[in-house]
Amino acid sequence: MANLMIIIDIVSVLAVIWAVVALANEASPLQDFCVADFNSTVRVNGFPCLDPKQVTADHFLFKGLNITGNTSNFLGVFVNRPTVNEIPGLNTLGISTVRVDYAPQGVVPPHRHPRATEILTVLEGTVLVGFVTSNPENRLISKVLEKGDVFVFPFGLVHFQQNVGPGNAVTMAFLNSQNPGVILVANTLFGSTPRISDDVLTNALQVDVSIITKLKEPYH
């Protein structure tokens, strides 16, 4: 009987932990939908709800995810990321999507999503993906994906993608946030306004100040 009570207690604790984890992300909606009202002066965590009588099908629609993006930039990628700002009907639903087009060797640089886990599918091409675990391990977990392969980037971890095939590539991803956000590692370190001091960066990265100056040039 004592052992049974211990098992029941453990199960109860695990149930509480699971409930807390489940609630740690965006809250479940309390109505059928809450289309974002961008004109409201009310400020909440998300957007206030548009009057349901004003809601139309177009509030839930986004067109153009089938269109190949222009990859003629220094990264060789085009990111088409419809979030709640493009699809007002996503408000409070905790999901969004992204299409990325890659030229050969095109790269989505190391970045993280502060509010989302990401699941990525390769639609065309061969794509190298990877993420880095948190301190102190900092272990790179990486894989080369082919068409039809699926890979998950855990919540908040720094990750990247690169087209390593001979031709163009396309990926589609889904994220469990209406507005997952993007924090690019290089932009954060070298492109902030005002700038992070050279003294902080030289000590943190253990490099000469001339290197820090050079790294900051593209961002200012």
Walk me through this protein's architecture:
This protein has 220 residues and is α+β, with helices and mostly antiparallel strands. Helices cover 20% and strands 25% of the residues. The chain has helices spanning 2-23, 185-190, 198-205, 209-216; strands spanning 77-80, 96-102, 107-112, 118-124, 127-132, 140-145, 150-153, 159-163, 169-175, 183-184. A five-stranded antiparallel beta sheet has the order 1-2-9-4-7, with no helix packed on it. Strands 6-5-8-3-10 form a five-stranded antiparallel beta sheet. It is globular, with a radius of gyration of 21 Å. The termini are far apart. Mean pLDDT is 90; it is low at 16-24.
Biggest sheet character: 5 strands, antiparallel
Query: Count of helical segments?
Result: 4
Strand content: 15-25%
| Order of secondary-structure elements | HEEEEEEEEEEHHH
Shape: globular
Strand order of the largest sheet: 1-2-9-4-7
How far apart are the first and last residues' alpha carbons, in Å?
A: 69 Å
Domain Cupin type-1: 75-213
Subcellular location: Secreted, Extracellular space, Apoplast
Protein name: Germin-like protein
Disulfide bonds: 34-49
